[in-house]
Each structure stands twice: as C-alpha cells, then as structure tokens.
Amino acid sequence: MTMDILLAKAKAAGRKALTEYESKQLLGAYGVPVIHETVAGSVEEAVEAAVRTGFPVVLKGLGAALLHKTERGLVHLNLTDEAAVRQAAEAIEKEAGTDLEGLLVQPQIQGRREFVAGLFRDPQFGPVVMFGVGGIFTEAFGDVSFRLAPITDTDAAEMLDEIQGKALLGPFRGEAAADRKTLIDCLTGISRIAAEHPEVAEIDINPLLVAPDGTVRAVDALCVLGETEVQAPLIKPVDPADIGALFYPKSIAFVGASAQIGKWGNMLLANTISGGYAGEIYLVNPKGGTIAGRPVFRSVEEIPGHVDLAVVTIPAASVMALIEPMARKGIRNMLLITSGFGETGAAGKALEKEMVLAAEGSGILVLGPNTMGICNPHINLYCTGSPVMPRAGSTAMVAQSGNMGTQLMAFAEDQGIGVRAFSGSGNEAMITIEDYLDGFEVDELTRIVMLYIESVKNGRRFFNSACRVGRKKPIVLLKGGQSLAGNRAASSHTGAMASDARVFDAVCRQAGIVKVDSPMDLLDLSAAFSSLPLPRGKRAAIMTLGGGWGVVTADLCSAYGLEVPELPREMIALIDTILPPYWSRSNPIDIVGENDTTIPLFVMEELLKWDGCDGVVNLGIKGRRIFVNRMADAVERADPGHSKEMTNLARNTLEDFEKHYVEQIVALMEKYGKPVYGVSLLTESEDPTLYRVAGSNFKGVFYETPERAIKAFAKMVEYNRFLSRGRECQKG
Questions:
Q1: What distance in Å separates the CA atoms of residue 562 and residue 677, rounded to the nearest whole number?
Q2: d(CA 565, CA 587)
Q3: What is the C-alpha to C-alpha distance for residues 475 and 462, in angstroms, rounded to an integer?
Q4: Is there a contact between 502 and 515 (Cβ–Cβ < 8 Å)?
Q5: Can you give the pLDDT at residue 140?
Q6: Contact assessment for residue 709 and residue 677, using Cβ atoms and an 8 Å cutoff
Q7: CA pair distance 578, 591, nearest whole angstrom
Q8: Any residues with CB less than 8 A from the CB of 611 and at least 6 apart, and which?
Q9: How does strand 373-376 pair with strand 419-424?
Q10: Residue range 697-705: average pLDDT?
Q11: End-to-end CA distance of the chain
Q12: 8 A C-beta contact, residue 525 and residue 701
C-alpha cells in the first residue's frame, strides 16, 4: 500500500490518527529507522509472533483510538516466554475493549539513551521539526530543539548539537556513539513528510532509542491527522521602492497641525522643523489661521504645491473622510499617527479594515496607524513625537512599540550610533515588518537592521525575508511578548513541547537573526556590527590592566561559548622582554598596571598577528584619563600651592594617548582584519560607545562592562557561523 492510499483511507474513515503500525509504515518510507514488528489479530497469533520474533518481546495494544497506550496499561515490556505473552495479551484485550484493533509484537530493544523526534504545524510559521531528549520525562525536561521545515542535513546536525543532553549522543558509559547519519536522515525524512503530506498535522517518535552499539530505532510512533488549514488572506506585499519614497519626501503636509504644545499635531511639526528638514512644509487644520508663523490651510486640497507625504494626527473617526481629498490632491503616502484603530478592539479593527480598503482603492500607502513616526537623518527628517535626533549612519531601526522606539533612538543619539532610518511601525495595517525587511535588503545605505517586534503578520514570509537579508547584512532583534501558546495541540509530546517563544527562537537561529535579550543589547550589537570586522572564529585573546578583570572576562567567555586559548611559548618569551617577571604569562595577559603607553599597543599587535586568536578584548586601557583627572583634582584641592604644571602634563599625556590608542586600534583592525572589543576603565556621561577615525570604515568600540563586550563578541561569532552555513533562502 502506498502512503497516499494509507492516508486517504484513514481520512475517509474519519480517523484523527494513524495506528502505531501505520505510523511506522509512513515513517519508514521516508528513511526513519523503524523497529521490525508484527500485527496479531488474536491472543494466540500474538504468542506465535512472539516465538518467531524471539524472546524477550514487547506487546502493545493497537488501534487508531489508542493514542496514549502507556497511561492505559496497554504496553507490556520484557516478556520472556509464551505464558507471559498470553497473560499480557489477555490483559490488553480486557483494558482496550472495543478500541482494540490488534496486538503489536516487537523485539525488546536494549538501550539506555532515549530521544524524541517529531513534527507539528505552527499556525504562524507552518511545519516545524523537533528533536530532543525523550522517554517518559520528555515534557518535564523540555530539552528540545526546533527548525522550520524544510530542513537540510546541516539544520538537522545543528539540532542534534543544540540540546543540553547532546553528550548522550557521543560515547556513553561504554556504549558506542549514536549513529548521527541515521538521526539526521530521520529528521530530514520527517521534514519531507511535512512537505508532501499536509494532512499529517503532528508526528511523535518517542522513544527514538539508541542501542549500545549506536544503532538507532524508532520504538514508538504516532501520526496525528488534521485538516489542511485555509490561511486567512494575508496583507499584500509593498514594493520596497514605495517604502523608500516614504522616507524621502520633498514636501510634507501636517494634517491636524496644532499650536497647542504637547499635542501630536504640534510635537511632530516642531521636531521636523527643528531637526533641519529642508523640504516644503504645509499645515492643515479646518480652523485655518497661522501656526508657528506659517499659514494654515483648511483642507489638503487648498495646498498650492505638490505633497509627497501627509502626516495625519486627526481623530480616527475623521480619517476616512480624508482619503478622497488626498486622492484628488495626488497625495500617495500617509503617515497615520492617529490611534483608535485595530489596537482598541473589534470596532477599531473594523474601522482599520475599512480604512485600508479605501486607501488601497485610492492608491494611497499608509504607514501605521498608531505609530510614533519616522526619521531619516540622511535628509534631516525627524518626524517623531520625541525630540531625539541621532546622527546619520547605517543602522536601520523599526519598532512595534512607540516607547521602545523612543528609547532606542535616545540610546543611539547618546552612544553616537548612526541611524539609517527609523520607523515606528504601529499597527502595520498596510506596511508590515516583512515589507521593511524586503526594503532593507535592497537599500544600499543599510548595513545593520535593528528590530523590536512583538508579532509578525506572515510568519513564513518573515522567515524567508530575514534569511535573505541576513546573508547580506546582520539583523539584530529584540522580541517582546514571548508567552506560551496555551491553545496549541497537545495530543503528542511534540505538540506539548511547542510554544511561541521556542518556535520564534528556532526561526531566529535558522534565519541567522541575532536575537538579544535587552534594549541595550540592540545598541551594543549595532555598534559592534557597524564598526568592527567579523571574527572568523570564537578564540578570544584578552589584555587587561588588572588581573581580576581578566579572570572575570575569561569566565564570561566560557559562559558565552568563546574560547580563551593558551599563549604560544614564543609570544610569552617576547612579552617577557617588556613586562616585569610577575606578569600573568598566560591568556588573559595582565600588563600589571604598567604606565608605559607603548606596551598596550605592542601587546595588541602581537595578539592580532597570532593565528590562534580571532578577536581581542582589551580592558581598562581607555578611561585612565578620567582616573588621572580625578587624582589631579584631589591633589590640587589638597595642596593649593601645588604647581598645576605636573598635573596638567599628566592630564594632557593621557588625553593624547587615548586618542592615539583609538586611532592605532582602528589601523590594526584594518591591517589584520580582526575585531578589537574595548572596555573602559571609567566613563563619563558624555563618553560614547563609538569613536570615529577619519578615513576608516572601522571605529573604536568601548563598552562600560566586560559582559557587554563579550556578548557582542559571541553574537558576532554566532552570525558568522550562519554565514558560513550557506543556506539557500526562498523568496516571499
């Protein structure tokens, strides 16, 4: 019987699942190593099958309605003779009753290592393959890894290596390592079932048993059937060129302009003017008059010139009436700041849908509603509700939260991080996060993509777009609202293990998205990716002004998956010539507080030359000027008669050294192509994270703590691993 016929018969019978035997037939056809077994129709047939199989055997009740056999006592293990099989078969018949369709006889397979593999269909992202530690404690341990199907052999191999119990896959207590190729074939086979049989909703293989000789067998399996879901209509993709035009308006009309300080119609106008926007600005308010010395038009149709962008702050109930006048005026872009739409409930959702249909019919593209605005520093456009104006740069930022967007923009301004463009995406009624990703892919000025998101409109499109963009430029993402999905199917271990957060984490790993845990991580990674060469590997060299910091940093490297290799003997001998005999003579290199300003750069270059190092972390070299300044201030206060000549010399010497130090670090990164992560000894409020050097694409990067530096290093290593995988990404 072909698998298509098997599945068609089960569906025609109205069944919700295949029997265990049928499930294994399907899985075996796709390369899953299933155990040899026999179906018996009676107690005596079961005894005969057991004799043919050879003792000991396992006896199970078989039936499409028997999904959880162990809980009902329908699985009997280690039966060693005919009498035991007969007794077990009679007990199964009594317990299963009319649900029993047969008795399944299997050889008793020895093995202490149990894994689980499976499939479920996520409502947002589609089919997802799972692998993890199995057995009766699968859900209790929750040690699993996920990937969106289809998966490659590389994806499957990574899944094996991601679980915490991966040591069980290697040689274990005298037993051979698990057959990795068989496990990989098992996972890719499940992936092919997902693509070729959409009627299979879930697959659960538990246990996937590893025998002492390393062979792998699927001992138990369940395939749950379901209707192929009809997906709700998706939002139409927006042409990236149309999104780009929104951020380059030559003229803006503020519809709902106000003279009242604190109102959106006033804040947006004030920030746009004060930011230096050079295009034409028109104000619209039915009351007319003047605002900020500018004439106010009673409608958009009264505006004498062409309008590229309408910034709308009028009440939600009035927006529909604005669309036709905008269309007649030829305004094709609307930045809809107004709230009161889909975020407010059913009535707001209905109004938002009506507004979108009207806008689409009139050829108007709407960004929002319920957005905090946009900015493009490259044309001095700062049309947001907050007076935050970061410098022009290469980091494109999108936030699904106005408050988070404001915070990120302020951080970027404070830390000297250049912004390509920013959008508060609001309700994403027409322009979604997927559209932004497609736009970033083709935008030449965007080098890093920074996202704060809480949800996506089209999971598969998001995944495919992120995968393509990520191969060209890093995506750094912070996810909000990572709650468990309480309504997902849980008829199998696989379904029970699934959650929104776990699936989204798998999407990020598979698509090469650099996922972070806090808003400051977003900025730290943006600074690193925009300023440093990518590390080629995970080997860190550490140079520190004091031993304690070096120890802490080495521990952090271990925690974040970086290696701290031992120094070669030749380098130790070389550094012996410039440092006192009590220096650490190991990695981390403690330069023992030496004041000779040539030493840090000498050691830095030797480390960057070293083939055993992929990046350098330097601690406490920069920021000593603050320490010296404070010490000089203390001396001058304590001894008013003290000559300031010596203290000023110390101040100026350290000031000049730090400037030269940054310039030399940048030059060394250009020469050796390896990143240098700095940690300042002390910082002041005006100290940025980035230090620019004229004529170089690289920058000096100095964080306040070792943890921030090591996290940036580790995340860049993670991204470089993604690039090296060479995954093919799909369009749309």
A1: 14
A2: 7
A3: 12
A4: no
A5: 62
A6: yes
A7: 10
A8: none
A9: antiparallel
A10: 94
A11: 37
A12: no
Q: Which two tokens stand for residue 303?
A: 């505006």
* pLDDT for res 234: 78
Q: What is the spatial distance between Cα 681 and Cα 703, in angstroms, rounded to a whole number?
A: 10
- Residue 675, preceding peptide bond in cis (omega within 30° of 0): no
Output the 3-class SS for 320-343. HHHHHHHHHHCCCEEEECCCCCHH
Q: What is the pLDDT of residue 496?
A: 46
pLDDT digits 0-9 by tens, 567-605: 999 999 999 999 998 899 999 999 987 678 789 999 999
pLDDT band at 443 (very low <50, low <70, confident <90, very high): very high
Residue 578: other Cβ atoms inside 10 A:
15
Alpha helices in 546-623 (DSSP H): 547-559, 569-576, 598-609
Q: Which residues pair with 281 in a beta bridge?
A: 252
Residue 14, class by beta-carbon neighbours within 10 Å (0-12 exposed, 13-18 middle, 19+ buried)? exposed
Positive or negative torsion for Cα 570, 574, 580, 586: negative
What order do you get walking across the sheet with 448-453 strand by strand?
Answer: 381-384, 373-376, 419-424, 392-399, 448-453, 475-479, 514-516
In eight-state DSSP terms, residue 62 is E
Cis (ω within 30 of 0) for the bond into 600?
no
Nearest to 32 by CA among 200, 217, 202: 217
pTM, full prediction: 0.89
Q: Alpha-carbon distance 241 to 22, whole Å?
A: 52
Confidence of residue 230 (pLDDT cuts 50, 70, 90): low
Sign of CA dihedral 701, 707, 710, 712: negative
Please, what is the average pLDDT of the chain?
90
pLDDT, tens only, 489-535: 334 444 444 457 889 999 999 999 999 998 889 989 999 999 999 99
Both structure tokens of 675: 């990143």
- Residue 396 token pair: 């494109």
Of 490, 445, 449, the closest CA to residue 469 belongs to 449
Q: What is the 3-state secondary structure (H, E, C) of 291-317?
A: ECCEEEECCHHHCCCCCCEEEECCCHH
Measure the CA–CA gap between 143 and 128, rounded to whole angstroms. 16
SS (H, E, C) 513-530: CEEECCHHHHHHHHHHHH
Residue 560: which pLDDT band, with cuts at 50, 70 and 90? very high
Q: At 487, is the pLDDT very low, low, confident or very high (cuts 50, 70, 90)?
A: very low
Which domains are delineated in the chain? 36-108 (3.30.1490.20), 113-225 (3.30.470.20), 240-529 (3.40.50.261), 532-722 (3.40.50.261)
Least confident of 329-343, 352-366, 413-427, 491-505: 491-505
Burial per residue of 209-222, b for 16 or more beta-carbon CB atoms within 10 angstroms, e otherwise: bbbeebebbbbbbb
Q: So what's the pLDDT on residue 668? A: 97
Helices (H) and strands (E) in the chain, counts: 23, 30
Q: How many CB atoms lie within 10 A of CB 686?
A: 6
Match 């456009």 to its residue by tokens: 381
